[in-house]
Specification:
eight-stranded mixed β-sheet, about 290 residues, alpha/beta, single chain, globular, five-stranded mixed β-sheet, 17 strands, about 35% strand
Amino acid sequence: MKLVNDFKDYELLDMANGEKLERWGKYYLVRPDPQVIWDKKSKPELWSKADAKYFRSNTGGGKWEVYNKNLPNNWSIKYHDLVFNLKLMGFKHTGLFPEQAYNWNIISEKIRNANREVKVLNLFAYTGGASVAALSENAIVTHVDSSRGMVDWAKENVKSSKLSDREIHFIVDDCVKFVEREIRRGHKYDIIIMDPPSFGRGANKEVWQVEKDLYNLVSLCSKLLSDDPLMFLINSYTTGLSMTVLKDVMMLTIVPKYHGHIETDEVGIKMSNSELVLPCGIFARWEK
């Protein structure tokens, strides 16, 4: 499992009873997590310090209960020189997945070592963690998400990270339709990143189902790779898909033309002062 050990502004403090206690900057949040199936708290005294807690509803969804009246609507945390804006979202999220810092590091290193202009396509790009990481290394980035709100949030993260002078193209669109148009335009990318949801709707209510649509999208994206591509990365939080499936998709779509090798693994977060690790998803990464 791949872990990040240098995220100073984020900390997983404890886990128990289907919940995790986290520190985001100076604020403590409690959020549900289905992977936490044990009932023993390692640091019970810390849980009373929570500034807010997300409660799931039996009828679906849920809501935040804020205990600290001074908890701001928005605040920011840093990862090295990258600055990310946070807020309590309607479905337990904060706008950032800190375990993805592992992939940000890989992306940054790959661009830095290329010693040439690198074009990056980030699909299902959310609030732009990977986009900001790529932009910080002077890549030319195309950031695509079907939610205008998420794209606007990514713009805020670029601005907060003082990268507004770099070249990034923000696109609000259905990812499949955008890729199909890019193929017709003849555009090419050296790095393609995608973080597809299990289920979603595009900008014009297009339906996305990862089990039905992922293979087709990766196959389409293989036509957008440059003559000398650097990397193709798929992240997944879908419990129904294994790392082997992601690897198989790449073996069928990318390897026949570009050869190279594929690495698969989990990403996770180590609990502070503990040997416990919270698994947070899987990835498959093709490299030349």
